[in-house]
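Model the whole thing, not chain by chain.
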Amino acid sequence: MMFSHPFLQFSALLLSLYAFHLGYKRFAATKLGRKSVFAWKRHVLLGTLAMVIWMPGLGLGLLLAWWQWNIVFITGAHYQIALLMIPFIVFGYVSGYIMDKRKAKRSVLPLVHGANNLLLVLMALAQLGTGAKVLRDFVLS
Ligand code: HEM
Ligand code: HEM
């Protein structure tokens, strides 16, 4: 049970890395003038999966902390980065949803979406490090 949260969030991290790889191909085509094909539907599907795993996964982390220790917000950097991720997850999802539902020639929104989500992936990578410390110091000790 205590490993469900790390497992879910790590899966979402892998999905987001792949979604970023696909998104970068779009960036390379529209902004760098390279010849590359953007797997639009796959990007939307995997990106959406990553976001909808991260959000409830965050809630699950809090629930597990509460069940185990009867207190939340005790893991320092791990919960701080988690809270910081919330607005980025919401913006990344909403901006992607809009660009998918109403396709148009855009320059600024894709760039902001891509930069926002690059930061998000980096924060999730950092969570791998801080989360591993939580596992070592709080769960397995
Ligand atoms: C972790 C998840 C995600 C990452 C890392 C990511 C990353 C990116 C990147 C780097 C681009 C290229 C931006 C550019 O051309 O400057 C992009 C484009 C795009 N993304 Fe995402 N994205 C994610 C999630 C989503 C989601 C959830 C959706 C939709 C619900 C979505 C829809 C799109 C669409 C439609 C484009 C093309 C926009 C256009 O060129 O008109 N993305 N994404
Ligand atoms: C990817 C690797 C990650 C690992 C290994 C990890 C590990 C953990 C562990 C072991 C806990 C304690 C509860 C439990 O035993 O499950 C926890 C709590 C938590 N995690 Fe993660 N986590 C990861 C990613 C994330 C991400 C991406 C987020 C946010 C989107 C997040 C948000 C939280 C929150 C909010 C808590 C409650 C902490 C507190 O109340 O102080 N975690 N995590």
